[in-house]
Amino acid sequence: MLVYMVRRLIWTPFLLLAVSLFVFVLGRYGPGDPIEVRLGQHYTPEAAARLRAQFGLDDPMPVQYARYVWHALKGDFGDSYRYQGKTVSSLLGPKMWISAQLFFAAMVITLTFGVPIGFFAALRQGSWVDPAIVGSTLVLYALPVFIVAPALIVIFALWLGLVPTSGWDGFFDKRIILPALTIGLPGIAVFARLMRASTLDVIGQDFIRTARAKGLRERVVNYRHIARNALIPVLTILGFSLAGMLGGALITELIFGIPGVASFSLDAIFQRDYPVVTALALIGAGSLVIANLIVDILYAVVDPRIKYS
Amino acid sequence: MKSIRRPIAMLVLMALASLAALAIACGGGNKAENPTATPSGAQATATPRPGTQTAGSADRTPSKVAPELQQTSTPSAGSGNAKQGGVLRRLWADPPTLDPHQVSDTTSASIVVEIFSGLVRLNNDLKLEPDLAESYTTSGGGTVYEFKLRPDLKFSDGTPVTAADFKWSMERAAHPDTESTVAELYLGDIVGVNEIVKGKGAVTDAKGIEVVDARTLRITIDAPKPYFLAKLTYPTAYVASRKNVEQGGADWTRKPVGTGAFRLEEYRVGERLVLARNDNYWGRKALLDRVNFNLAGGVSMAMYENDEIDITGVGLLDIDRVKDPREPLNKQLVTVPPGFSVSYIGFNTAKPPFDDINFRKALNYAVDKQLIASEVFGGLVQPAYGVLPPGFPGYSGAVDGLNFNSDLAKEYLQKSKYSDAASRPRIVITVPGTGGSPTLDIEVVTDMWEQTLGVKAEIQQVEWATYLQDLNRRRLQAFGGLGWEADYPDPQDFIDILFHSTSNANHGAYSNSEIDKIVESARTEADPQKRFELYKTAELKIVEDAPWVPMWFDTEGYALVKPWVKGYRFTPLIVPKLKDVWIDK
Fold first, then answer.
1. Contact B296 A83 (CB under 8 A)
2. Which of A171, A190, A205, A208 matches a 20 to 30 Å C-alpha distance to B276?
3. pTM surpassing 0.80?
């Protein structure tokens, strides 16, 4: 197991290196210049040249990249161009933490509703319950964020007045509810449908019949045999769906005025704040690698047949 | 390696997400500090990117002037019943910097002017008044200023402020390591400052800044420039504590020590910034105990109605509702004076077909700005026929420009060498923006050109950073959605900086030796009346040369202020104002 993890992780630095190079080169060769954005209406060629030298932006690209990697290896991702004198980590840290909390809340909603609903639907196959669940989750799935979010705001904030329309005050503030729902709702559909299909697949297998034939109680069959096995493909998707949900999470943050990474990264891109943009890409890539690794480990936990060596 | 593809997929997703988000963000929300809610076309400079309109202020502007306005109804702090205590709550955005010597944006400047201060300041009526200097004298034909500091000046940590602190501060502001983008603009007139700016760190002393004694500072400038003093009101010229800066290192503004009426009590990025009264302030202490800037974002109007903040701008979506006298909020409605800015369509006079003055005039005469203002913008903009915004020093009202006249337009087109469509080069107007947000005013303008003159023009939208790059290199043939916002209250900041042939902000490569001569003599003209006359003459000639189609001036906007907030004044330029605000509840 340990060997497997190490072998997986050994590739991560190379992956991150490739990502950083990609973003770095794209930024430098793309149009637009952070110095000119900062100077705005006070641009003069001399001032721009001076600031470029100050930021090391006038060095040859390989030198700049080597310097970046060298500093990054020491844990220094540079200073933001826009927020002067602030390191990228000090800026991104708090934003990431907020986004992570919101994302976690959304995942909790998705999994606590999605998986049981799908499981329940599969067990009720043949009755009206199953198609009703499948149909309603399809509707959820088809609704884009920019419909769900305003609808939730209108219903829960404006009509019912249960929660404020926007803002953020930590994980335990009620303002987290609407954005977490917005991100989590489409996920419910995904996981419900997946869990249903997976459960049906397991139900039909021989060992389930054997378990029943042994005279095991229905509950034991359902949870120990069916649910556990049905969860395996769901876990696979969990890793993949992270990326998809991140996209939705960014829009949701903007709509609900949550001070997470979304608006910050948009600003960074428009301002050509290279250090921030590169760090964001690295964090995105890194968290996907780690999420997939965690999923692989969970396989082994859920399914005793899977062993890594 | 399946995982290789996923970061790319995520980038694509992020890109898609941003596009969708932009489309949404355009829809609603108000900007707290820009209650004018100008339609997108005229606003393109102020908001090149419609990112988060929920955030505090116009921090997207490349310049630094907050379009605030005069509040009509609130009694001023001096009215006797002002009381101490209370907290003012505002929605704001993270300031890019709290270092006075780095500030060049409105979001930062509005906070920095409360924490720090300088020799002179602008009051709420934009009149220059002594601040840390109790008086000053000029000599040497207007090139030498001698400032006498107030006695017993202290920083917020109780340490004394001396003339040496000013000299050190200004030299620090100019030093390349400080990375100021505006040091040349605000301090470059001082003898020796440009040498520091360009000295690659080797030069640290400006001989134009002399410490005569602990309370006397002498500043020598390179020519008698009457507008110099106004430049000292900007934070670049403010005093900072050398001990504070040097001990605090790169992140010294986490615990800044200043001379303003407030001090920074707490700053948590993305959450809140709290100012508290500075008990070491030289004058009457601030009335408020605290000012809470909410940085977490949100919909300004909703937060105001929910009593979470005390002041909000009113956007287009809410304006009809709050203007209704039956609406309770109507009593809290105040008007906000227009910011000092002008937006325009610029022509690159070095590129055909705009190298022909007759062609440029034809295009000017063909635009019915009054019609666009009323029909497209519902009266929310004011047509511009000159360069200087109304109310700005030097504005005369005498410049009424090339008004809509289709006959004259056709006549000038005939006179021009591009009268024949076949000989006319393709015309492309470039505008800044993202996400396909419409620049409706420019679309209508091109339509008017086509209908009146048969001149076809294409509109090309490019993202702000790219736009700036092309603009600065004079690669654009014609450019819209651009504006100029005042840096300091003097016509030199418009007429000279925008139209002198060697000026960097003269993006259209406009060159008229006569104009150059007039604005150069105005730079050092001591008689204010004569100076303004010179600028008026120049402005009239410029308008006749038609290097622009001047489009809009800012207009009065609306804001809501809670009834218990007293003494808050909206101003067209950023000035320290919070010390006179008090809470009555």
1. no
2. A171
3. no
